[in-house]
Design goal:
The complex is a heterodimer of chains A (496) and B (1025). Chain A is mainly alpha-helical. Chain A has 20 helices and eleven strands. In chain A, the strands form five sheets. A two-stranded antiparallel sheet of chain A has the order 2-6. Chain A is globular. The termini of chain A are far apart. Chain B has 1025 residues and is mainly beta. Chain B folds into three domains: 87 residues, Immunoglobulin-like (Sandwich), CATH 2.60.40; 136 residues, Beta Complex (Ferric Hydroxamate Uptake Protein, Chain A, domain 1), CATH 2.170.130.10; 624 residues, Beta Barrel (Maltoporin, Chain A). Helix content of chain B is 7%, strand content 48%. In chain B, strand 31 and strand 32 form a beta hairpin. Chains A and B meet through helix 1, helix 2, strand 1, helix 3 and helix 6 of A and strand 25, strand 27, strand 31, strand 32 and strand 39 of B. Strand 1 of chain A pairs antiparallel with strand 31 of chain B, so a sheet runs across the interface.
Chain lengths: 496, 1025
C-alpha cells in the first residue's frame, strides 16, 4: 500500500512537473500567432511573382460592387441630366444631386478609389526593390502610376481637393492625410501619367488585355489636360494617340459594346468582367421590362432615360446611335413589341449594355469602358479648337468621323450630318460637348462634361430636381471627415 | 414537514446545546476516538466529511470508507459536516466508537452550486449566481441547453434569433458589453470551457447554433455566473457571464434505466394578413391610374381567378420527436451514466429540419483512496437542413412568400414552377417561394466529440490536485445546391468542410480547511492551457447538365469554381487563483484572480490580469437575528472585479495580405493578386469590463420564500471595435481598443412555495431584470458611426453607434401625416404629390434630407421577465412558464416592401386598404397613395416588439407504479405540453422575438424575412426502471 502510494505520488509529481515544464518555457512561443492562410507584409514583395500579384491587387478594386460593377455608375449616371430612377430614396438622392455626407454610395466609392491608390502606392514603393527583369519591373511600376493617376482624377473631379497619400500606409499613425488643393492633385496626376506613358508598352499580349498601355496613359493624360483646360497639351496628347495608329472607330456603333467582341480595335482601356464569376449590373440596370426583356436577366430600370433630357427630347432619329442607346418599346421574350410605359417602372430604357445569356442580375459580362477611340477624337476636336482661335479642319474632321459613324455613312467623306461648318469657337465647343453627350450615353462621361463646363448642377434644376443648395461637388464622406484627424468641417465642400 | 418530527428536532438541538455547555465546563481527558460518518437515508458511508472538535482547531476528514480517527476529550463535542448534508454536533459522551448519521439537506442553502473550478454551498456563495434545475429544463422540449434559461433567470436574455430548427440562440447576461467582440457567455460543459461562436447571416441562411450539438436531456443543472466575483476566475472569457452546464452522473447502487420520449407537432404561430388576388389587382390598377397610365395592368379581373396564399403553401405542420435512453448506476468505486438521444425536428418551412443523434458516457472511478477519475465523453452528429433565410431580401424564402403576387400559381400546368415575377405590374425580382424552398438545399452536418477527464489526487488532508485533459473536436460539412429549376440557376453546387479541435489542460490545486470552529478556508489555484486549430476547405461548381448529382459530383459541372482553404490557430495560457474565507459562518470573503495570455492580442499586450473581490454578510447568522426565526437566511453581498473579452477572431493584430481576385485577358481569365487587407495593430489588447454588484439574498420561513436582488454596473473600456480610420488611407477600419460602454441594471428573482399540503403543492416564481445599455464613448470624431447597411430595397444602415445612446440604436425619419395637396418648389418636399408621405423637417432647414433623421428606439428591451408556476396535486402536476420582453424595438424590414403601397409592385399587408386614394383624400390615413414613391426609413418600420408570452404549459401525470408491486418498475410519467400558445404583442411581423443577424453583427433587431416562430403541442412519456 505504502509503496503504491509513494509511486503514485511520485508519478503524479512527475506528471505535474512534465506538464508544467513542457508548457511554461513555451509560453511566449505558443502565444505567438502562427499564420497559415495568408502572408504577412514582412515576408512578401520579394520576387517577380510578388510584384505581379501586387499590381493585380492594385487593379482589383475596380471590379468591386462599389466601383465598376455598379456604384461608380450609379453616382456618375444618376447625377447627370440623362439618367433617372423612379424608386428607392437612396438612389433618388443621387438622381436629385441631394446627397448628404453620409450617403452610402459615394462613401463606398471613395473607399474603393483609395484602396486602388494605397495598393498602387505599395507597388510604386516596393516593386523597385525587387530583383527581377528590369523592363517588366518598370512596366509594373508604370501601371501602378496609371492606376493611381486614374483614381485621383476621379476623386478630384467628384470631390475637388482631397487627401493625397502617395506612399504606402502601414500603420494607424500614417492614416491622417490633409486635404490637398485640387491643383496639387492635378499636378500629381500629370506627373504620374508622364512617367507612365514612358514605360508602358504600346500593346499587350492577349493574356494581359485590360492592363494599362501607353495609349491608355496618353488618352487619360489628354483627358486630364482637357479638364485642366490646358488645351494645347490636351490636343497634342490626343494627337499622339491618333498618330500611334493603334486604334480605330468600328464601322458599327453597336459592335463597340458587343459582349462577344469586347477586345475590339476601338477600346483603349476597359475594366474586365467575365460575367459568371465577376459581372457587372449593367445589362439589368440599363434595361426596362423586367423578366420580359430578353437582353438581360432582369430589366430592373435602375438607370432609366430622363424624359426631360436633351437626348430624349431632341435626338435626331436618323442618328443610328439613338436607337442603339435608348428605347421606349422593345421586343419581349414572346416576340411581341411592347411599351415600357405599361410596366410597373414606366420609364424608357437604355439599350447600350446587353447580356442575353446573363445567368442572374449582376452577372453581365459587359466591360465598362474607360476610354475608346471616339474619346480621343472628341478630346482632340475640342482641345484643338480651344487651343487656337476656333475649329481647325483637323478638329472638324475628328468630330465628324464620330458623327458619320453614328449616322452610318463613310467616315472620310463629308456628309449632310456633319457639324455645320464655320462655327465660332464657343459654338464649336458646344457642338463637341453635345456630340459627347450622344456618343457616350451611360458611359459615365456626361457628369464630368457637365462639371467641367460649369453646367452642373444648374441643368438638373431646369429639370425640376430638388437639388441641394450651394453644392457643386459631392461631399467628402462623413466617415472620412470624422475619422481623418487631419480634416476639419472647414474642409467640407460648399453646400454640406 | 410534519409536526412531530419538528418537535423531535427541537428537542435534539436543545439537548445538544446543553451537552455542549456541559462539555465546556469540564476539563478534557483525551482518548483515541474512532467512528464512521454515514448518510441517514441509506446508511452508506460518507467519505471526505469534516469532523471537528468544537471550540478547538483540531479535526480530520473521513477516509474512503467514511471512517475517521481522532484524539478527543471524553466530553468533547464533535462538529460533523459534509456538502449536501446538514451539519451536526455530536457529544462524545465517553464513547470511543461513534456512528454519526447525517441527514441530507433539502433546503437550497445547502444545495451545491457549481462555480468556476470548484463547487460551493449556496449559503457560502458571495457572488451572483443563478441556477436552473433539470426539472425546469425538462418542462419543455428544447433543442439546446441555453434555451432552457429563457424566462427562468433574472439578468439573462435569451433571444431565439430565428426559429428555424437548430437556429442560433443568442444569450446576453446583463446586456451586451461589446461592439465587435462576441457577446455570448462562456459555456463550461462538465468542466470544458466552450465559446459558442454564433456566426453571422452568410447571405444564404440565418446562423445555426453550435451548442445544439450537445443533447440537453442529460443536463442536471445549469448555473449562470453573473457578477465579476463569480466570473473573474474565467478572466479573459468572463465578461459576458459564464454558464456552467453539468450533466447527469452515475450514483452507486443498482443500475437504473430511464426512457424518455416525446412527440409534437409545430404549426406557424401566426400568418401575416396580406391582400388576396382581387385586392391585389385593385391596388395595381389604382397605382396605374395614379401614375396616369393609359393601360391598366388588370383591365379584366375575371381573367385572373387564382388567389394563392403563399404562406399556406410554404408553411406546414411539422413533427418533432425526441427519444432518450439513460443507463446509470455502479459500485462505490466505479459509477456510470450512459445516455443515447435521437432528436428529429422538421421545420414549419418546407424543406427545413434538424436531427441529432448523440451518445454520452459519464464515468466516475475511484482508483485508490486518494485517486479518482471523472470522465465525460459526448459524441454527436447533427444534420441541419437550413431554409434560405438570407439577409439579402430577394434571396429569402420567407420574404418571397410574403411579397409574391397572389395571382401567381405555384405550378404551371406542366408541373414546372410558375415564374411569379411575370404577373403584370409585379416587381421583376421575386422568385417562386416553393421553388426556393425545394430547389435550394443547404445541409450542415456536424460531428462533434467533446471529451474530458479529470484526475483528482488527494495529496494530504484538504489538499487536492486535479489535472484535466480534454478535447473538443468537431467536423462539419455544408452541402449547398441550387437546382436548375431555380430561375437563373444552371445548377450550382458547393461543398464547404471545416474541422476544429480544441485541446485543454487544466492543473488545479484545491485546499479546504477549517481552522477551529470559526474559520474556513477554501483555496484554489492552478494553471491552464487551451489551444484551438481550425481548418476549412471548400469547392464549388456550376453549369450542370442535370440535377441528378446535387453536390455529389462537382466534376459534372461545366464551370468549376476556385477552391479555397484556410487554417487558423489560437491559444490561451492562464494562471488562476481564488480564496474563499469564511469567519463564523457569517462573514464571507472571496478573492480571485486570473492572468490570461492570448495569442490573439498584440505582442506587447498578450497578458491580461483579471482580479475580483467579494464580501458577503450572512446577517441571519448573527445572534441578534436568531430570535427572528421566520428569517431563515439573509445575506448581503457586494463584489467588484475585472473580466475580459477575447472573442475578436484570430490574427487581428497582424498585418495581413490576402488574395484578391479579378479578371484579365481577352479570354477573361481569373487573375489573383495579393494585397494588405488588414492594417496591423501591435497595440491590440484586452477589452476589459469592470463590474460592481450589490446584492441581497433573503430566505423566509425556512426557505419557503426566497428573494434575490442585485444591482450592477458594468463598465467596459478599451472596447474592441472596428473603428473607422480615414478611408483615404486605403483602409476603412482598424481593430482598436477604443471607447466604452456601460450596462447598468437590476436583477430580481422571487420564488416561493405558496401551498404545501400533503397532496397539494404550489411553487411559483417571478424574475425580472432591467438593463440600460449606453455607449459612453467611441473613438471617432463626431462620436458616432453606422452599422453596415441593410441591402436593397432599404440601401441604408438603420443602426447607429452613437455616444449617449444604446448600442445599435435605430435611426430614421419621422412621419408627419400625408400631403394634402401636390407640392411645389418651395415645399419641404418639392416633388411630392397629394397623398404622399410627409416627413418632419427636424433640423428646420426647409428640406427633407438625410439630416432629418433621428434616433428612433433601440433593439434591447427596457426589461425582461419570467413567471413560473409548478402546481402538484397528488400524481398530477401543472407547470407554466410565462415570459416577456418590454420596450424593445424591431426594424420590420419586411414591411418596407409589404407596406410601400405597391411602389415596387409586390403584395401588400391586408390593412393597406387604409390608404389615401383620389376618392378618399384622407391625410390621416395609415398609408400614402399608391405610387412609385418608395418609403423612407421612418418610424413606421420601427415597431414595438414588446411581448408577453405563454412560453410553456405542461400537464403531467405520474403513474402510481409503486402500487403495482412490480419491483423493477421505478417510475412512469406521461405529459402533454404546449409552447407559444399565447403571445400578446403589437408587432406586426411573424414574431417579436427575432433577429435576422446574429453574432457580432452591429445590425441588431432587424427582421428581414426571418424564419417564423412556431406554436407547438407535444405529448411525452418518461419511464424509470
Amino acid at each position: 500500500m505504502n509503496t503504491r502510494q509513494t509511486l503514485l505520488r511520485r508519478g503524479l509529481t512527475l506528471l505535474t512537473l512534465t506538464l508544467s515544464l513542457g508548457l511554461f518555457p513555451g509560453c511566449q512561443d505558443s502565444l505567438q500567432e502562427e499564420v497559415y492562410s495568408f502572408v504577412s507584409a514582412d515576408n512578401f514583395y520579394k520576387t517577380a511573382a510578388d510584384a505581379e500579384a501586387a499590381v493585380i491587387a492594385a487593379y482589383q478594386p475596380f471590379t468591386s460592387d462599389d466601383y465598376f460593377r455598379r456604384n461608380f455608375y450609379n453616382i456618375g449616371l444618376l447625377a447627370d441630366d440623362q439618367v433617372m430612377i423612379g424608386r428607392n430614396a437612396t438612389f433618388q438622392a443621387v438622381d436629385n444631386f441631394n446627397v448628404t455626407p453620409d450617403h452610402p454610395f459615394h462613401t463606398a466609392l471613395w473607399q474603393q478609389m483609395y484602396l486602388c491608390i494605397n495598393r498602387s502606392n505599395t507597388g510604386i514603393q516596393r516593386i523597385p526593390a525587387i530583383s527581377m527583369d528590369e523592363t517588366r519591373r518598370t512596366t509594373l511600376v508604370g501601371e501602378c502610376r496609371y492606376v493611381r493617376a486614374y483614381n485621383y482624377f476621379n476623386l478630384v473631379r467628384l470631390f475637388g481637393g482631397v487627401p493625397m497619400p502617395t506612399t504606402e500606409i502601414q500603420s494607424p499613425g500614417q492614416t491622417n492625410n490633409p486635404k490637398v488643393p485640387k491643383e496639387k492633385v492635378y499636378e500629381q496626376i500629370v506627373a504620374d501619367l508622364l512617367e507612365a506613358e514612358k514605360v508602358l508598352p504600346l500593346t499587350r499580349p492577349a493574356a494581359e488585355w485590360g492592363r494599362a498601355t501607353r495609349g491608355a496613359a496618353q488618352t487619360l493624360l489628354a483627358e486630364v489636360y482637357l479638364t485642366m483646360e490646358r488645351w494645347q497639351q490636351a490636343a497634342d496628347k490626343a494627337k499622339e494617340v491618333i498618330d500611334s495608329k493603334q486604334y480605330q472607330l468600328l464601322p458599327d456603333f453597336k459592335a463597340v459594346f458587343s459582349v462577344s467582341n469586347e477586345a475590339n480595335a476601338e477600346i483603349i482601356q476597359s475594366i474586365q468582367f467575365d460575367g459568371p464569376t465577376i459581372g457587372t449590373w449593367f445589362a439589368s440596370f440599363n434595361h426596362a421590362g423586367g423578366s420580359d426583356n430578353p437582353n438581360c436577366f432582369l430589366g430592373s430600370a435602375n438607370w432609366s432615360v430622363e424624359q426631360k433630357s436633351d437626348i430624349w427630347l431632341n435626338w435626331d432619329s436618323k442618328d443610328g446611335r439613338k436607337a442603339a442607346s435608348t428605347y421606349d418599346k422593345f421586343i419581349n421574350k414572346a416576340g411581341k413589341l411592347v411599351s415600357v410605359f405599361d410596366y410597373p417602372q414606366p420609364f424608357p430604357g437604355f439599350g447600350k449594355y446587353n447580356a442575353p445569356n446573363e445567368v442572374s442580375n449582376g452577372n453581365s459580362p459587359c466591360n465598362p469602358i474607360i476610354h475608346r477611340y471616339a474619346d480621343v477624337l472628341l478630346i482632340y476636336a475640342e482641345a484643338a479648337s480651344q487651343a487656337g482661335d476656333g475649329p481647325t479642319p483637323a478638329a472638324y474632321d475628328a468630330v465628324n468621323q464620330v458623327r458619320r459613324r453614328g449616322y452610318k455613312v463613310p467616315l472620310t467623306a463629308p456628309s449632310e450630318f456633319d457639324v455645320p461648318a464655320g462655327l465660332s469657337k464657343a459654338a464649336f465647343r458646344q457642338a463637341v460637348i453635345r456630340e459627347r453627350s450622344l456618343e457616350f450615353v451611360i458611359e459615365n462621361k456626361r457628369l464630368f462634361d457637365l462639371m467641367r463646363t460649369g453646367q452642373f448642377p444648374a441643368i438638373l434644376k431646369t429639370q425640376g430636381k430638388n437639388v441641394r443648395d450651394g453644392a457643386t461637388l459631392f461631399p467628402i464622406p462623413l466617415s472620412e471627415l470624422n475619422s481623418n484627424l487631419a480634416l476639419t468641417q472647414a474642409d467640407q465642400n460648399p453646400g454640406y | 414537514m410534519n409536526r412531530p418530527y419538528t418537535v423531535w428536532l427541537h428537542a435534539l438541538i436543545l439537548l445538544l446545546c446543553l451537552s455542549a455547555q456541559a462539555a465546556l465546563a469540564q476539563t478534557a481527558n483525551e482518548i483515541r476516538l474512532s467512528g464512521i460518518v454515514i448518510s441517514e437515508s441509506d446508511g452508506k458511508p460518507l467519505p471526505g466529511a469534516t469532523v471537528l472538535i468544537q471550540a478547538t482547531n483540531k479535526g480530520t476528514t473521513t477516509d474512503a470508507d467514511g471512517r475517521f480517527q481522532l484524539m478527543a476529550g471524553l466530553n468533547a463535542t464533535l462538529q460533523v459536516s459534509f456538502i449536501g448534508y446538514r451539519s451536526r454536533s455530536v457529544a462524545v459522551d465517553n464513547r470511543t466508537e461513534l456512528t454519526i448519521a447525517l441527514t441530507a439537506d433539502e433546503s437550497n442553502l445547502a444545495e451545491v452550486v457549481v462555480v468556476g473550478y470548484g463547487t460551493q454551498k449556496r449559503r457560502d456563495v458571495t457572488g451572483s449566481i443563478a441556477s436552473v434545475s433539470a426539472a425546469a429544463i425538462k418542462e419543455m422540449p428544447i433543442t439546446s441547453a441555453e434555451q432552457g434559461l429563457q424566462g427562468r433567470v433574472a439578468g439573462v436574455q435569451v433571444i431565439q434569433s430565428n426559429s428555424a430548427p437548430g437556429g442560433a440562440v443568442s444569450i446576453r447576461v446583463r446586456g451586451g458589453n461589446s461592439v465587435l467582440g462576441g457577446n455570448e457567455p462562456l459555456y463550461v460543459i462538465d468542466g470544458f470551457p466552450v465559446y459558442n461562436s454564433i456566426g453571422t447571416n452568410d447571405g444564404q441562411s440565418q446562423p445555426t447554433n453550435p451548442l445544439a450539438t450537445i443533447n440537453p436531456n442529460d443536463i442536471v443543472s445549469m448555473e449562470v455566473l453573473k457578477d465579476a466575483s463569480a466570473t473573474a476566475i474565467f478572466g479573459a472569457r468572463g465578461a459576458n457571464g459564464v454558464v456552467i452546464v453539468t450533466t447527469r452522473r452515475g450514483k452507486a447502487g443498482p443500475g437504473t434505466v430511464d426512457v424518455e420520449a416525446y412527440y409534437g407537432v409545430q404549426t406557424v404561430r401566426r400568418k401575416i394578413p396580406l391582400l388576396n388576388g382581387s385586392q391585389y389587382m385593385d391596388l395595381a390598377n389604382e397605382k396605374a391610374r395614379n401614375l396616369g397610365q393609359t393601360t391598366l395592368p388588370f383591365p379584366d379581373k375575371s381573367k385572373w381567378p387564382v388567389s394563392t396564399d403563399w404562406q399556406e403553401e410554404l408553411f406546414r405542420p411539422a413533427p418533432i420527436r425526441n427519444y432518450a435512453l439513460t443507463f446509470s448506476g455502479g459500485s462505490e468505486t466505479s459509477r456510470y451514466a450512459i445516455s443515447g438521444n435521437w432528436f428529429d425536428q422538421q421545420g414549419i418551412v418546407t424543406g427545413s429540419g434538424f436531427r441529432r443523434g448523440s451518445l454520452r458516457a459519464n464515468m466516475d472511478n475511484t482508483l485508490s483512496r486518494k485517486l479518482s477519475l471523472s470522465t465525460s465523453i459526448t459524441a454527436s452528429r447533427t444534420i441541419n437542413q437550413q431554409a434560405r433565410t438570407s439577409i439579402n431580401f430577394g434571396n429569402g424564402v420567407v420574404y418571397n412568400a410574403l411579397i409574391s403576387s397572389p395571382l401567381a400559381s405555384v405550378y404551371n400546368p406542366d408541373g414546372s414552377y410558375f415564374p411569379v415575377s411575370t404577373i403584370p405590374a409585379t416587381e421583376p425580382f421575386g422568385t417562386n417561394p416553393l421553388a426556393l424552398a425545394r430547389e435550394f438545399s443547404n445541409e450542415l452536418v456536424t460531428n462533434r466529440i467533446l471529451a474530458n477527464t479529470n484526475l483528482t489526487y488527494a495529496l494530504t488532508a484538504g489538499l487536492t490536485l486535479s489535472v484535466r485533459l480534454g478535447i473538443d473536436y468537431s467536423n462539419d460539412r455544408t452541402d449547398r445546391y441550387f437546382s436548375r429549376k431555380l430561375p437563373g440557376s444552371t445548377g450550382q453546387a458547393g461543398v464547404i468542410t471545416g474541422e476544429g479541435s480544441t485541446y485543454l489542460n487544466e492543473n488545479i490545486l484545491t485546499y479546504k480547511k477549517q481552522f477551529g470552529a470559526d474559520h474556513t478556508l477554501d483555496a484554489t489555484g492552478g494553471f491552464t492551457w487551451q489551444e484551438s486549430v481550425f481548418s476549412s476547405l471548400s469547392a464549388s461548381s456550376q453549369n450542370f447538365a442535370v440535377d441528378l448529382f446535387g453536390t455529389d459530383n462537382l466534376s459534372a459541372g461545366n464551370s468549376p469554381g476556385v477552391p479555397a482553404s484556410g487554417r487558423s490557430k489560437n491559444s490561451l495560457l492562464s494562471w488562476l487563483g481564488r480564496v474563499n474565507y469564511g469567519f463564523k459562518d457569517r462573514y464571507l470573503l472571496t478573492v480571485s484572480a486570473r492572468a490570461d495570455g492570448s495569442s490573439r492580442f498584440g505582442s506587447g499586450n498578450k497578458w491580461g490580469f483579471f482580479p475580483s473581490a467579494a464580501l458577503a454578510w450572512r446577517v441571519s447568522e448573527e445572534p441578534f437575528m436568531k430570535a427572528v426565526n421566520w428569517v431563515s437566511d439573509l445575506k448581503l453581498r457586494t463584489s467588484v472585479g475585472v473580466t475580459g473579452n477575447q472573442e475578436i477572431g484570430n490574427y487581428q493584430s497582424l498585418n495581413r495580405l490576402s488574395t484578391v481576385g479579378s479578371i484579365q485577358g481577352v479570354a477573361q481569365s481569373p487573375a489573383v493578386g495579393f494585397a494588405v487587407t488588414t492594417m496591423a495593430n501591435p497595440d491590440l489588447k484586452w477589452e476589459t469590463t469592470t463590474q460592481y454588484d450589490a446584492g441581497l439574498d433573503v430566505g423566509l420561513w425556512n426557505g419557503r420564500i426566497n428573494l434575490s436582488l442585485d444591482y450592477y454596473v458594468k463598465n467596459t473600456t478599451d472596447l474592441l471595435a472596428q473603428v473607422p480610420v480615414a478611408i483615404s488611407s486605403g483602409f476603412s477600419s482598424i481593430l482598436l481598443n477604443s471607447g466604452s460602454i456601460r450596462n447598468r441594471g437590476v436583477d430580481v428573482s422571487l420564488d416561493g412555495t405558496i401551498l404545501n399540503r400533503s397532496r397539494l403543492r404550489w411553487n411559483a416564481g417571478v424574475n425580472l431584470s432591467t438593463n440600460r445599455n449606453r455607449v459612453q464613448s467611441v473613438a471617432v470624431r463626431g462620436g458616432q458611426f453606422f452599422a453596415p447597411l441593410i441591402t436593397s430595397p432599404v440601401d441604408l444602415p438603420v443602426n447607429i453607434i452613437r455616444e449617449g445612446q444604446p448600442v445599435s440604436a435605430f435611426f430614421g425619419y419621422v412621419r408627419d401625416g400625408l400631403w394634402g395637396e401636390d407640392q411645389g418648389a418651395s415645399s419641404l418636399m418639392p416633388n411630392a404629390r397629394a397623398g404622399e408621405q410627409r416627413y418632419k423637417d427636424l433640423n428646420g432647414d426647409g428640406k427633407i434630407t438625410a439630416d432629418d433623421r433621428t434616433v428612433l428606439g433601440k433593439p434591447n428591451p427596457d426589461f425582461i421577465y419570467g413567471l413560473t408556476s409548478q402546481l402538484t396535486y397528488g400524481p398530477f402536476d401543472l407547470n407554466i412558464l410565462f415570459q416577456g420582453v418590454q420596450g424593445a424595438t424591431v426594424f420590420n424590414a419586411n414591411n418596407f416592401t409589404l407596406s410601400d403601397v405597391f411602389a415596387r409592385g409586390n403584395n401588400q399587408l391586408a390593412d393597406i386598404t387604409d390608404r389615401w386614394t383620389t376618392e378618399n383624400r384622407n391625410v390621416n390615413a395609415k398609408y400614402p397613395r399608391a405610387s412609385s414613391v418608395s418609403p423612407l426609413v421612418s418610424d413606421r418600420f420601427f415597431e414595438d416588439a414588446s411581448y408577453f408570452r405563454l412560453r410553456n404549459i405542461q400537464v403531467g401525470y405520474n403513474l402510481p407504479v409503486g402500487s403495482l408491486g412490480v419491483k423493477w418498475f421505478r417510475s412512469a410519467r406521461v405529459y402533454l405540453s404546449g409552447q407559444n400558445l399565447l403571445t400578446v404583442t403589437r408587432y406586426t411581423g411573424f414574431d417579436p422575438e427575432v433577429s435576422s443577424t446574429a453574432g457580432s453583427d452591429l445590425r441588431k433587431g432587424v427582421d428581414i424575412g426571418a424564419y417564423p416562430a412556431a406554436k407547438m403541442w407535444t405529448a411525452g412519456l418518461r419511464l424509470g426502471f
